[in-house]
């Protein structure tokens, strides 16, 4: 399952939830405390998404957007689709 993510680096506290209409369509909003330096925010976002979807971080793959706030992640199977939709419908 592929899905878009909008990363907000340097946030006061980490959070996963909300919807952002970005260049890849509706995206899950992921706020991370890590700065956007040397891929730290991307790694933190990947780990936050894994935790929120209940999968291992090694099962989440960055497909596109390594140096962008707008990313495409992929997780195997469709099992997390309902959880992803619930997170996107949550507070931003």
Q: What is shown here, in short?
A:
The chain has helices at 40-53, 81-88; strands at residues 2-8, 15-22, 25-31, 61-64, 70-74. With 92 residues, it is an alpha+beta fold.
Could you please describe the fold and organization of this structure?
With 92 residues, this protein is an alpha+beta fold. It has one domain: YggU-like (Conserved Hypothetical Protein Mth637, Chain: A). 24% of the residues lie in helices and 34% in strands. It has two helices and five strands; from the N terminus they run βββαββα. It has helices spanning 40-53, 81-88; strands at residues 2-8, 15-22, 25-31, 61-64, 70-74. Strands 2-3-1-5-4 form a five-stranded mixed sheet. Strand 4 and strand 5 (70-74) form a beta hairpin. The longest helix has 14 residues, at 40-53. The protein is globular and about 30 Å long. The mean pLDDT is 93.
Task: Describe the SSE topology.
Elements: E1 2-8, E2 15-22, E3 25-31, H1 40-53, E4 61-64, E5 70-74, H2 81-88
Parallel strand pairs: 1-3
Antiparallel strand pairs: 1-5, 2-3, 4-5
């Amino acid at each position: 399952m592929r899905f878009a993510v909008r990363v907000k680096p340097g946030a006061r506290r980490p959070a996963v939830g909300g919807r952002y209409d970005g260049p890849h369509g509706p995206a899950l909003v992921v706020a991370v405390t890590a700065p956007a330096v040397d891929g730290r925010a991307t790694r933190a976002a990947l780990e936050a998404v894994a935790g929120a979807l209940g999968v291992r971080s090694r099962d989440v793959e960055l497909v596109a957007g390594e140096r962008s706030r707008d990313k495409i992640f992929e997780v195997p199977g469709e099992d997390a689709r309902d959880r992803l939709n619930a997170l996107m419908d949550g507070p931003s």
